[in-house]
Every structure is written in structure tokens, then in C-alpha cells.
Amino acid sequence: MQIKDPLRIEVLRGGFQESLHLVHAVVTDSSGKVVEGWGDIDFLTFPRSAVKPLQAIPLILSGAEERFQMSTAELAMACSSHGAEPAHLRVVSSWLERIGCEADDLECGSHWPSHEESAHDLARAGSYPVALHNNCSGKHTGFLTLARQRQFDLKGYIQPDHPIQKEIRSILEYMMELDLKDAPMGIDGCSIPTWGVPLRAIARGIARFSTGDQLTKEHQLACKKLRSAMVTEPYFVAGTDRHCTRVMKAFGGTVVCKTGAEGVFAAGVPELGLGIALKAQDGTRRAAEVALSKILHQVGASPKDPDFTIEQPLYNRNQWMIGSVRPLV
Amino acid sequence: MQIKDPLRIEVLRGGFQESLHLVHAVVTDSSGKVVEGWGDIDFLTFPRSAVKPLQAIPLILSGAEERFQMSTAELAMACSSHGAEPAHLRVVSSWLERIGCEADDLECGSHWPSHEESAHDLARAGSYPVALHNNCSGKHTGFLTLARQRQFDLKGYIQPDHPIQKEIRSILEYMMELDLKDAPMGIDGCSIPTWGVPLRAIARGIARFSTGDQLTKEHQLACKKLRSAMVTEPYFVAGTDRHCTRVMKAFGGTVVCKTGAEGVFAAGVPELGLGIALKAQDGTRRAAEVALSKILHQVGASPKDPDFTIEQPLYNRNQWMIGSVRPLV
């Protein structure tokens, strides 16, 4: 197996290349064996939200999911970067209520809904965003649920030395087979720690998550539940016009995937026993999205939706198609 | 003079590099002589909105500016990519009225104000965006003004074969000393043609615009008026928290600059006789902004505002500073 050059994703305008992205990517099996690679397969990557599915595992291991009778949509939202569309907010709100918390307990900070129409509806209603609208509020409600189950103090659950973040770090270490003690640490958009890891470790982690290989029975079961929730309710993992949702729908449950800020994607193809991790060197989302579609095609995953394309059209302000984003051939 | 490697702009999180941008850039004098260069100084670049100041020149040459008694703010807005803040809309509206046009005559298409707060205010008022809110509505009002002056049919003024766009093409050819006949053509976000040109030609064009060198007396005067309008009213060239506005303010009139979509910047430093053109290869704005600040420092332009920094801080959803964007040293 030979590592290829970084994937090149080009932005076309009028048939000419306007911009160019480099993407590092790697495909491994659950043992970490590299099946395909492009660029620096050990690129130091802050996985950001791409490991949310792994961060949700303790919810199930701890018995919290059972005790609080979490729904499939809630499990999907524990792994989500959602658009704060009305249905997203309803799910998180009722979940928060069931665990005896309120939006003020969320320490993720607030921002306007990333789903533009929902942001404008919020403004139109004369309201302003609260922590509930943060794209990470599902994951954070998961943290609060785990804290309830473990009877931890809720306050400061985002801090690296809080037992919640220690448990999250442990599950990442277990799934990626890494020691994060000396890993570079940054603070994520939602204020929890994020550790820089080699891209290959993310691929291995998501491969293990997707296949259940090399995990304890309990971990296998937890991963299976989360995977099943994500592909059953892909809308609750992201939302309208979002790539995670689009891909999971188009591949009819045979692909599980999660994006992270700064051009990261982690995806698993259970039936092929593979995990995919990629990072657009420049951190752009469009490059990561097109690269993921390209790699899924490359490894032989096939969309059930015949309209699914790797290339993404670009439209201007009059809705004319003026270009596209596609892999450079 | 030796061409250096492309500028590297890094995104730091927790002190570690998370993402990396490559920027091609060139500094020339008005004759096109290269003073400094990084990467591919002839990188094929769609200048997009970065050449709006050049596209505004015919407004003055034609006598339209005089006939319609255009204000300084209106001249600045002819060169703008504005945020559709209330003051921007007031200027464009009254200008449209004065030339006997209305917002419906604008063929740029509509989008929500790029200034986020103004977008939310618009929604809060129960309204929806129209062409007036398009960041290019100032430039397009300039086109309509020119069409009035020339007594052209307004309809279709965005089409490549309309006499307005032919005149715009001619002025670009004159200023950049290029023949655009066989240049790659794309369609811009606002639906007018945009031609791919070597980065160096953009630098030369903006150097000539900034210094007036090698131009006819009429062109010199037109450029001087526009330059003066831009640095006198930098808020009307972009808006709140925008890099064009920030730079022109910070350099107290000694730098004139204009950004373009997909990571482009054109800037002039009249007193040094220089033009700068740069293109982030991946099309990201943050890379282009930091690269411009870096190059201005490099060529010896000095900000009057002591708080102006090259490095840009990054904040998360709790407003914690979690990283920055800066040139790689």
C-alpha cells in the first residue's frame, strides 16, 4: 500500500480553477492497518466535533441512557452538531427537562442557529440565542446526563479536570488506542478540551466504533446503539442541507459519519470494516465534504440514492450555477 | 529580487497549528516591476470584488459623477462590498432615487445582509432581503448610473455583451495593461463577468490606481477621487468589523485596499508607489486578511493606530480567546 499525494479538491468558476484545497486522509481497519492514504496520514489533527460519537459512548456504558430512557433522536443528538432547527430544539429541551436540568446548566456558550432560516425565525420572533441553540447543545446535554448518572457536581463540567472530561478523555483513549496525557490540548468552540492526535488514530477509532471489532462486549453494544441512532435519525445529527445528514441518508445506513470544525471528517463503513479520517489542511468545510464523498466512492461504498454526487454545484446570488467543487482529476 | 515561497498563514489552537493556508502574493510598482513576490506571482486569479475601485473609474470619466452630484460616501460605495448596515442602505437608496431608478433595477440578486446584526434586525422587522441588501448593490448602482449617463438600456446591464460590461472590461484592460479577449471568464456572485488574470496584473492595476502613474490626466483625476473617497469613508467600502475598513482606518489614509471573494486582496500604498495583490490558494478570507497585514508591514507601510496587529485572535462561543491566525515564522 502506497501513500498517495494529498487529495486535491478544486473550486471551479466558469470551468477554470479558482481555488485549490489539499486534504490529508487515511482509511484503516479496526486494527489501525492502513488501507489507503493521501498526504500526511499522521497529520496532527484536532478532531473537534468529529469524535462526538465516541464522546457519547459513556452515556450508554454508565447506564444513563437506560435510566433516563433516552430516545433514538436523543442518542443521535448526543453525537450531533445540529442547526438549531425547531425539531432539534424540541428534542434537546425535553431531554434536559427529563434529567432535571435547564438550558442555563449548559456551559457551551451561545450563538445564532447555524441553520440560517432558523436564525432568522428566531430574530423574527424577537428572541436571541441561548446555549440551547449552540450546535453542541446535544453533546453537552449528554455530558449533563452522564454527570447526573454519576452524581457529579454539574458546575464546571467543561473543565479538563472535571470528572466528566476525564471520563471523556478516557473513552477517546480507549477507542483510539492512544495515551492523551502528553497530547497537544486546545479548547474547542464549546469550551471543552480537544486533543491533537494523528489522523490515523481518528480513523482507527471510528473503524472500531463502526465495526465493534476489538472492543469489550459493553463497548460493542454501546457503539452499536449510537451508530444505529445516527443512521436511523440522520436529521438529528446535523440537519437540513448538511453533509452528515445528506451522506447518511444517501448511503441508506451503510455509512456513519460526523464532521468537525476546521475541515475534519470521521466516517465508518461497517460492512467493509473500515474507518475514514480526513482533514482539509486549510480547515475548509467544502473541501472536507467533497473529499469524504470521493473517498467513500474510492473504497467501494455505494450510495442507494442515485442522485448523490461527489461534485457539489456552486450557485450565485441569482441562483445561477456558476461553478462547482470537485476532486482534481 | 528573488521570489520567495508562498506565504504561510497558520491557525493556532492552544498554541498548536490546527490549519495552514498558502498565499500567493506580489508587490509591484506602476510599471509592473516586481518588488517582492511569494509563491506564484502570476497565479491565475479571478479578482472578484477586489477590482471594484477600477470598475468605478468610468463613473467619473463619463461625467456621471458630476452630473448626478455624487457624494463621497456614494463614490466609496461604488467601490464597496458592504454589509448592508442601515447607513449603507440609506446611501444606496437615495443614490438610486436620484438617478431615477429603484431597487428592482438592480440585477445583482439578493442575500441576507452580510453584517450579521443587520440581518437579524431585518428579520426582526418581519422583512426579507432584496437586491439592495446585496453586498454589491453599491457597485451595481454605479453601473446603473453609468447606463443613465450613456443613455443605455438598463435591462441586462450585467451581461457580458451589454455596453456597460464592455466599458467595464475596457477600463480593466487599460488599468491592468492586459487584453481580456482570451482571458478565462467566470460569472461573479452578483452575475457580472469576472476575468481570470495573472496576480501581477492586479498588483499593477492597483498600483496605477493608487499612484496615478502612467495614466492619462483624466484617469489620474478619476482614480484620485475614488481613492480619496475610499480612505475618507472607509466604513462605506465595507463596514463594521471588516478588514478593508479596519486597514484603511488604521493606516490613516496611506493605504487603499479592497478585498474580493475567494481570498483575494488588492491594495495600494501611494506614498511608496506600490500595488499589492494576493490570493489565498484555498480561497479563505482569514488567510487573505492576515497576509495583507503582513505584507503591508513588510513593505514598510506603518499603521497610525498602535493597536493594529497582524495576528488576529480567535474566540470561542464563550468568548474565550482560544487561538489566533498569524503568519508562520
In short:
Chain A has helices spanning 52-55, 57-61, 64-67, 72-78, 86-98, 116-124, 137-150, 163-176, 199-211, 217-232, 243-250, 285-299, and strands spanning 7-13, 16-28, 34-38, 44-45, 185-187, 193-195, 197-198, 256-260, 264-269, 274-280, 312-315, 321-327. By secondary structure, chain A is of the alpha+beta class. In chain A, helix 4 (72-78) crosses helix 7 (137-150), helix 4 (72-78) packs across helix 10 (217-232) and helix 8 packs across helix 9.
**Rg of chain A (C-alpha, Å):** 19 Å
Largest interface (CB within 8 Å) is between: A-B, 53 and 52 residues
- Tally of extended strands of chain A? 12
Largest sheet of chain A: 8 strands, antiparallel
Structural class of chain A comes to alpha+beta
Quaternary state, please?
A: homodimer
Q: Which parts of chain A are unreliable, with pLDDT below 50 for 5 consecutive residues or more?
A: none
Distance between the termini of chain A: 21 Å
Average pLDDT confidence of chain A is: 98
What general form of chain A does the structure show?
globular
User: SSE order of chain A in H/E notation?
Assistant: EEEEHHHHHHHHEEEHHHEEEHEE
**DSSP summary: helix tally of chain A:** 12
Portion in strands of chain A: 15-25%
